[in-house]
Specification:
This protein is 32% helix and 27% strand. The protein is α/β, with parallel strands linked by helices and 208 residues long. The chain has two domains: 1-74 and 150-208, Rossmann fold (3-Layer(aba) Sandwich), CATH 3.40.50.300; 83-147, no CATH class. The strands form two sheets. A six-stranded mixed beta sheet has the order 6-7-8-3-9-10, with helices on both faces. A four-stranded antiparallel beta sheet has the order 2-1-4-5, with helices on one face.
Length: 208
């Protein structure tokens, strides 16, 4: 589904990523683990087309990112802390995003808010959300159009134990539905519990 070949990234004289090879199989959860600052997020930006690598390529469902397509199709993405309009409610934020592609409407937005446990807080302004609530809203945004692929960078950040368990159960349910998931985390427990295939990253390299 996703194939990263010999990918490297330099920014000025700094080597951020070096000779990355990574494969994400369709219908599985692939985990990428590593300490903060090891290059995980920058790799996700290359995979999703937000950053152009210095060398190498990303093939997404048979098409090369940056040449045949600019961004992955039919993909829900979380990279870093999700950004929302703070003076809109959680519900209005999702409805505004849903209006861009017009794939879904009110019913789907309400259902995904229920799924992540935010339905009761749907009319609350996002600026009054806790970090964990904003993170769950980000997960809702990634899920709401029912994409075939999910690329999730640290989706458990800011979540308490109960919400971590909720998100884990959502991801396992999506895997059972045949979805393809790339999960990035510095938390070994999340990776161990959820992932079929695990890559470890350190200092801009894959080390296993």
């Amino acid at each position: 589904m996703i194939c990263v070949k010999n990918l490297s990234l330099k920014i000025q004289k700094d080597v951020i990523l070096s000779d990355i090879d990574l494969h994400v199989e369709k219908g599985k959860i692939t985990g990428l683990i590593g300490r903060n600052g090891c290059g995980k997020t920058m790799l996700m930006k290359c995979i999703t087309g937000f950053v152009k690598p210095t060398q190498g390529e990303v093939i997404f469902d048979g098409k090369k990112i940056g040449e045949e397509i600019d961004f992955p199709k039919d993909t829900g993405i979380i990279i870093e802390t999700p950004a929302f309009v703070p003076y809109y409610s959680g519900y209005k934020n999702l409805m505004e995003l849903a209006s861009l592609q017009k794939k879904i409407g009110k019913h789907e937005v309400e259902e995904v808010l229920k799924k992540v446990g935010l339905y009761e807080a749907r009319n609350k302004l996002v600026r009054k959300y806790s970090l964990g609530m904003r993170q769950r809203l980000g997960i809702a945004q990634a899920l709401m159009e029912n994409p075939e692929t999910l690329i999730l960078d640290e989706p458990m950040n800011g979540l308490d134990n109960e919400c971590v368990a909720l998100v884990r159960s959502i991801l396992m349910e999506l895997k059972e539905q045949g979805k393809t998931i790339l999960l990035v985390s510095h938390n070994a427990e999340d990776i161990r519990v959820l992932c079929d295939v695990i890559y470890e990253m350190d200092k801009g390299r894959i080390i296993n």
